[in-house]
Amino acid sequence: MSTKYIFVTGGVTSSLGKGIICASLGRLLIARGLKVTIQKLDPYINVDPGTMNPYEHGEVYVTDDGAETDLDLGHYERFLDIRTSQTNNVTTGRIYYDVITKERQGAYLGKTVQVIPHITDEIQSHVLKLGKSGDYDVVIVEIGGTVGDIESLPYIEAVRQLKYNVGRQNTLNIHLTLVPFLAAAGELKTKPTQHSVKTLLESGLQPDILVCRSEHSLDESIRSKVARFCNVEREDVIASIDARSIYEVPLLMKEEGLDQRVIEKLNLPATEPNLESWLGFVEAVCNPSGSIEIALVGKYVEHHDSYKSIVEAFIHAGAVNDCKVKVKWLQSDDLTSENIMEQLHGVSGVLVAPGFGGRGIEGKLAAVRYARENKIPFFGICLGMQCAVIEYARNVCGWTDANSTEFNLDTEYPIIDIMPDQKDIENMGGTMRLGKYACKLEQDSKALEAYGKENVEERHRHRYEVNNNLRYKLTENGMKLTGLNPERDLVEIVEIDEHPWFVGVQFHPELRSTVSNPQPLFVDFVKASVKHAKSNDLFFSLKKSAAINS
Ligand code: GLN
Predict the structure, then answer these.
(1) Ligand 1 centre from 383 Cα, in Å?
(2) Residue-wise pLDDT tens digits, 231-246
(3) Ligand 1 contact via 464 beta carbon (within 6 Å)
């Protein structure tokens, strides 16, 4: 069977949840026994989102192979339980970079290099890469942006051509659009959808299936109207109304028959989808026995998407522990040793988040200290782990000036320091310690207990490390280095024994948490936090009908 390509475009407005629709469709097709992956095409000129501010673009999602990618790839991995790579995320910047590099090498010698055909050809070759690997029955291609955007045009044109290059029977277009409810008129309106389909048609693309996002259910007359004006069959108008949790969307899409229509149209071998474990997970997410509050201390907390994978990892770990984790967002800039007790009041766990730069560091150190001294479960991730080490060096080891050279180049005790191989790097893009690295766990550690195996691999994104020349001071004073990178002897995990759960990790465990495989350290951290909550009267019992967004 040749690989089938499903192109997903978006219309009317951004933020309709195209990534979730793609991931949900992917999940449904996998549940039918098909091999599926998803690719995201992003129309911006950055080569990758690695150099973008989290306020600008949300979390940078790092893959095993060290690609810095769009956060939608996180949804793909979490829903599909697959591993993505650089090939799964292509930006306009990357396309131009490749074309211009080829031009300089003389690959187009004699030719005028143009958007059509050179850029559109390059887009097509990137799209075909995943299919050509022979690993997939279906490649879902999410096209970022909204139809009608100038910058999306080359992608739409590339898709139009691809339909003919791989055969029309092997491709399908799904268009995600908005059917807004106008309160004043008391009606759902189809005009924006009609216009966005018209815009697609102007570029030569006719959608095969329309997924209509709406706050209200679509009645028969609205569905027929959309079908009639947009040249699709009535069954190809799929309603996508707001769900209790993003993880419920695959179930709602199945009810609407999205996967069934895709199977029929692409002539894919159809088996009944097996969604038993997914259903169990959604039930656990939407109907937990209780809830606890965990503080997330970071400097980008106004923009929750900056910590997307952490929030999702909490949902996965919460389901395992039959408990909803409510995140208490704490802006590290606002925390001081004077107000920390009040700020952390009522929380059963403290997570100090990853980040860059010195802003808010003293607030993070205050949070670490409070959690350490008051025996509240603590989880430090990347910069959060570095803060745990600095705090320990200062307040337990007595090196009051200890710091990271990221924040103070002149510190007497650079307990966190830049790696020698990072010192001469001048470019900012793609030059950190990125991607998957091995970590060997020590006996008698919380980490080993959580993972249940000695050798693990996790993803990284940082320039600084625990200073190997000074780490003796930490161990002399009781901090345990319970995970080490075997190749370079770098500190990956730190723990403290005289504490119910105090773990800092140099890597990003949140990036590998999926619905089917919740990340073990998150599961254990939430378990410890539930225990803390129960013994401190901080556990809120819920009736078994509570919904996740309540
Ligand atoms: N800024 C720190 C470093 O580069 C931590 C990075 C992070 O938290 N991802 O090492």
Answers:
(1) 5
(2) 999 999 999 999 999 9
(3) yes
| Contact status, residue 284 vs residue 530, Cβ threshold 8 Å | no
Which tokens sit at 278?
């997914």
Compute and round to an integer the Cα radius of gyration of the chain: 25
Q: What angle do CA 274, 280, 285 make, to 5 degrees?
A: 135
Looking at the predicted structure, is the pLDDT value of residue 277 above 60?
A: yes
- Residue 465, sorted as left (phi over 0), alpha (psi -120 to 50) or beta, turns out to be beta
Residue nearest to atom 5 of ligand 1 (CA): 383
| Biggest distance spanned by C-alpha atoms of the chain | 76
> What token pair was written down for 98?
């490749």
Sign of the torsion angle spanned by Cα atoms 382, 388, 394, 398: negative
Query: How far, in Å, CA of 37 to CA of 47, rounded?
Result: 22
Model confidence over 360-391: pLDDT tens digits?
A: 999 999 999 999 999 999 999 999 999 999 99
Q: How remote is the CA of residue 187 from the centroid of ligand 1, in Å?
A: 49
Identify the CA nearest to 381 among candidates 468, 294, 292.
294
31-55 pLDDT, tens digit each: 999 999 999 999 999 988 888 888 8
| Token duo for residue 192 | 């924006």
Query: Alpha carbon 494 to chain centroid distance?
Result: 25
Give the tens place of pLDDT for each residue, 513-547: 999 999 999 999 999 999 999 999 999 998 766 44
CB 268 within 8 A of CB 138: yes
Structure tokens at 489: 């002897």
